[in-house]
Design brief:
By secondary structure, this protein is of the alpha+beta class. It has 6 helices and 6 strands.
């Protein structure tokens, strides 16, 4: 797994300050979930780990949910709200954790309300959205500006390559009649092997 990447959200308290007293309890619950799911957390088994997590997480959670105290549950909600706000203001909003997740190879924003991802060759609904076209436009501008590109009504199409090698394509009105569109093809640092190519067709 590449440095700086993640497959699960990092606790927000790590942005600064001491960990709250329930952090050790929460870490123990996370370790128990990993153990119950049989996750290896190795780069070459990432696809299998992700499939198992998607398929069996709810069942594993139900087995340990009584261990979650009200304080832990409240902290999870607060952490999520704070992380989402930070991502919206300083990051890529609802796309930030998708960019950070190694399992996601492509992000397709059809419009502010519809986002799809590709995971191990399979396209699926990301189950998230931007709250407005303006919020999506802000993220698009934030993506292309650092690489010296611009996107506006006079330049409604833009292609760019991010510093990590990911390729970006954005289309905005008036060309995109249903609102801004964005595609990010992420650059993978994990080389594909023959078995991977066969599985992906």
């Amino acid at each position: 797994m590449r440095a700086g990447s993640r497959t699960l959200a990092e606790p927000v308290w790590r942005l600064g300050g001491d960990p709250p007293p329930y952090e050790a309890l929460l870490a123990n619950v996370e370790l128990r979930l990993i153990h119950k799911l049989g996750l290896t957390l190795q780069p070459r088994t990432l696809a299998d780990d992700f499939e198992r997590l998607e398929r069996e997480f709810i069942g594993a959670y139900r087995q340990i949910r009584l261990e979650l105290t009200p304080a832990i549950k409240a902290s999870l909600v607060i952490d999520r709200l704070k992380r989402d706000t930070l991502d919206l203001v300083f990051g890529l909003g609802p796309l930030q954790d998708l960019m950070d997740a190694d399992a996601v190879s492509e992000i397709m924003v059809v419009n502010a309300a519809r986002i799809f991802v590709e995971k191990f060759g399979v396209i699926e609904d990301a189950h998230r959205s931007f709250f407005s076209d303006e919020a999506l436009m802000s993220v698009i501008e934030r993506i292309v500006a650092p690489v010296g590109r611009r996107v506006d009504r006079s330049t409604p199409l833009v292609d760019a390559r991010l510093p990590d090698g990911s390729r970006v394509n954005a289309v905005i009105p008036p060309v995109a009649v249903r609102g801004p569109c964005l595609t990010i093809r992420k650059f993978s640092l994990i080389p594909l092997e023959i078995d991977d190519l066969v599985r992906l067709g």
